[in-house]
Amino acid sequence: MSETITAREIQAKLDEMLPALPLKGCPTCECMQDYLKELASRTDKAGREVLQTHMVPQPEVHACLGCHPCPPADELTRLMDEVE
C-alpha cells in the first residue's frame, strides 16, 4: 500500500486540480468524486476534512461528462498505478 497522503498534500492537489477542471459540472462528476474518494482512502482525518468540502452526496453525482482530457480521471489513474 502507498504512503498516507497528508492534508497539506491533499490541499496542494486540489489547488492544482480545481482550476484545471474544464466544465462547470466537473466537481460533481463521477470522475472527480471517485478521485476524491480514493484520496480519502489514503489520508488521515485531517485530510478527509479537507476533502469533505468537495465531496457531494451520491444522489448529486452525475455520470462522466466525457471531457478529454479529464484531470480527475488522469490523476486517479496515476494513484491506482502506484498500488500496482
List keywords for this structure.
84 residues; mainly alpha; 56% helix; globular
User: From the alpha-carbon coordinates, what is the Rg to the nearest angstrom?
Assistant: 12 Å
Terminus-to-terminus distance:
9 Å
What is the overall silhouette? globular
Q: Total number of β-strand segments? A: 0
Number of domains: 1
SSE run: HHHH
- The fraction of residues in strands falls at under 5%
Helix content: 55-70%
- The SS-based structural class is mainly alpha
* Nearest-integer average pLDDT: 94
The main β sheet shows up as: none
Contiguous helical run count: 4
**Poorly predicted tracts of residues:** none
What would your notes on this structure say?
- The protein is globular and about 30 Å long.
- It has one domain (7-83).
- It has 84 residues and is mostly helical.
- Helix content is 56%, strand content 0%.
- It has helices at 7-20, 30-41, 45-52, 71-83.
- 17% of the residues are buried.
- Helix 1 (7-20) runs parallel beside helix 3 and helix 2 runs parallel beside helix 4.
